[in-house]
Amino acid sequence: MSVEVAEKTGSAPARRTRAGRELIYRHPLFIRLSHWLTVLCIAILLMSGLQIFNAHASLYWGNTGNEGDPAIFSIFAEEQLEGPPIGWLRIGSTTINTTGWLGVFNDYDGFPSGRAFPYWITLPKSQNLAEGRRWHFFFAWLFVLNGLAYLLYGMVARHFKRDILPTRTDFKRVGRVILDHLTFKRARGEEAKRYNVIQKLTYIVVIFVLLPMMIITGLTMSPGMDAAAPWLPELFGGRQSARTFHFISASLIVLFVIIHVAKVFITGVLNEMRSMITGWFAVEPNWPAERYVIYPLITFAILLALSRGMVVGPGYLDALVLLGVAIFSTIVGSVAAWLVNRSAAKAKERAAREKGTKP
Q: Is the pLDDT of residue 268 over 70?
């Protein structure tokens, strides 16, 4: 999730793509390696963490959390005298029927399961707490070491001060940046070469608040760590409170990842992926941005109308298919918008050359 813009100096002409877009070296090798290792660690930690959570799918406040104690959050299955069980999500005194999503669903063997989270998002897929803990602890330490290396690099290379810390000018543009995000406007020209203020503030919260919170609360749940540092559980109001904070931090990080991936698709998945693999990012010219919103929406509406009335299967499958249609529409619509904008730009260049002026 880390980005570093390494600006090239000198009198050499800017490197460009075949289409004439300016190329900048956006991600140094260390940042790219750290990014992909972070992706791997977060994926394994999420899946193994949900496996661990399934062993006791309730969250409490304080030091104890036993069966019968009042939970502030829980996912459970309720057996029925007649008919299949019902899955429930309870937050405080509010309950939501989540059958087919959480609590009750068809397991990998085809039989109904009463686990909180479905098998396809846990590691391993069968209920195995010991195996899940082994995966979780190994990648947790790998995640910590990677994070420490990133922090050290960020300070030594002045990455945080140069690229992450907002300036006064950034804060003056908060309103405009929020509007651009709400209207899915893509950063172009000089704006695409650096973070906007919302990105900077988000990275600060994730890097310096959420990730340390998740690591410290994870350590707090370790009996050995509590014996060595008895003040840790007291810091969060008890071991069960630390577990609740751990779950909330992880959920917010997952939300950040979802938004991050969505923005990658909106801003151009091929260009963003290339920059995180090779380091080189193509700066989009100042083309009209409206097409990048309208074309995906039109594509999504057409596909939705064509699939109207189709039933795929269980509720969660329908949701996954809908998500797939949305992602596919975004890709197709963005490509179509890029082709139209590129064609219009070339037509403008030809007209300008015929008149003997610059476009």
A: yes
In this prediction the pTM is: 0.74
Mean pLDDT of 301-321: 61
Instruction: List the chain domain ranges.
Output: 1-28+157-284, 58-116, 287-359
CB 73 within 8 A of CB 56: no
- Cβ burial of 59 (10 Å; 0-12, 13-18, 19+) is buried
Q: Look at residue 45 and tell me whether its pLDDT is greater than 90.
A: yes
Neighbours of 131 (CB within 10 A): 14
pLDDT exceeds 60 at position 315: no
What is the chain's Cα-based Rg? 24
| Sign of the torsion angle spanned by Cα atoms 43, 48, 53, 59 | negative
Q: Please give the Cα distance from 359 to 349 (Å, whole number).
A: 5
Residue 241 has a CB neighbour count (10 Å cut-off) of 22
β-strand partners of 58: 74
Neighbours of 229 (CB within 10 A): 14
Helix, strand, or coil (residue 74): strand
Measured between alpha carbons, how far is 142 from 123 in angstroms, rounded to an integer? 17
Cβ neighbour number for residue 162 with a 10 Å cutoff: 14
Phi, psi values for residue 242, rounded to 5°:
-65, -40
Give the residue carrying structure tokens 């074309």.
Answer: 295
**320, two tokens:** 């996954």
